[in-house]
C-alpha cells in the first residue's frame, strides 16, 4: 500500500492509506472506495479491507480519521482492548464533525480527480461516518455502513440520496438494534438493511467476534451495491 497526504478545505492535513488494483483494472479502475475505519484507526484489518477492494478492481483509500484530534496527519493505531477503546472514545469525542466531513470531501475530490465515481464504506465508528458523509456531501455513488452506532440519530437528521446498504448484528451490545432499525424504516425506507445472527465486529477477521460466514455474505452484498451504482 502507498500513503498519500491530503488537505481539507480548511487547510488541515491527513494521511490516506491507498491500495490500487493490479492486472486488468490497473489502468482503468472500476471506481474509488473510501474505507472508513473502526475506532482503533487504520489497523491491519482495515488495510486488508482496502486490499480486498483493490483486488476487485477499485482504488481504495482509508483516511486516518483520528489525525485531527492528535494534531498529526498520520493519526494513530490503537490496541484493540479496553484501554485502546477508552482512548479511541476520547479522541473521537475531541474530533469535530466539520473536520470529518472536510476529510471525506477531500477523499471524494481525490477520487473524482482520477475520473472515478466514489463510494463510502465504513465499519463501527466509520459506519456512522459513512452514513453521515453520504447524507451531507455530493458525489457519493453508494454508501455502505457496517454496525454504525449512531445510525438512529443520524438518519433522523438527514439521509443519503445514493444507494445505501446497512449491515447490523442481532447480538451487538454497542448498538440498540431495534431503535436503529425502526429509525431507518421511518426516515430512510429506501435503505437496504441487513440484520445478521452475529455480534458487533463480525467483519474484523482478527477479532474474537469475527464470523466468516456472515462476513462473506455481507461482503458479497457490499460489492454488489457498489458495483451496481458506480
Automatic annotation (TrEMBL):
Residues 18-225 form the Dienelactone hydrolase domain. This is Dienelactone hydrolase family protein. GO terms for molecular function: hydrolase activity. Pfam families: DLH. Keywords: Hydrolase. InterPro entries: AB_hydrolase_fold, Dienelactn_hydro, Dienelactone_hydrolase-like. The keyword Hydrolase applies. The keyword Hydrolase applies. It comes from the Bacteria.
Amino acid at each position: 500500500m502507498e500513503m498519500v497526504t491530503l488537505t481539507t478545505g480548511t487547510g488541515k492535513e491527513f494521511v490516506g492509506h491507498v491500495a490500487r488494483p493490479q492486472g486488468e483494472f490497473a489502468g482503468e479502475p472500476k471506481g474509488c472506495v473510501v474505507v472508513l475505519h473502526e475506532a482503533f484507526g487504520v489497523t491491519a484489518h482495515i488495510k486488508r479491507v482496502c486490499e480486498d477492494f483493490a483486488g476487485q478492481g477499485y482504488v481504495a483509500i482509508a483516511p486516518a480519521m483520528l489525525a485531527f484530534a492528535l494534531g498529526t496527519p498520520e493519526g494513530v493505531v490503537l490496541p484493540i482492548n479496553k484501554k485502546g477503546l477508552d482512548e479511541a472514545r476520547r479522541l473521537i469525542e475531541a474530533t469535530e464533525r466539520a473536520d470529518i466531513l472536510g476529510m471525506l470531501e477531500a477523499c471524494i475530490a481525490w477520487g473524482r480527480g482520477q475520473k472515478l465515481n466514489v463510494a463510502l464504506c465504513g465499519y463501527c465508528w466509520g459506519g456512522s461516518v459513512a452514513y453521515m458523509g453520504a447524507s451531507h456531501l455530493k458525489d457519493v455513488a453508494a454508501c455502505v455502513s457496517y454496525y454504525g452506532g449512531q445510525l438512529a440519530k443520524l438518519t433522523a437528521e438527514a439521509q443519503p440520496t445514493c444507494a445505501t446498504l446497512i449491515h447490523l448484528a442481532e447480538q451487538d451490545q454497542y448498538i440498540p438494534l431495534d431503535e436503529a432499525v425502526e429509525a431507518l424504516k421511518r426516515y430512510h425506507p429506501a435503505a437496504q438493511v441487513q440484520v445478521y445472527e452475529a455480534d458487533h465486529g463480525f467483519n474484523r477477521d482478527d477479532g474474537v467476534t469475527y464470523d466468516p460466514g456472515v462476513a462473506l455474505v455481507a461482503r458479497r452484498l457490499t460489492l454488489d451495491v457498489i458495483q451496481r451504482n458506480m
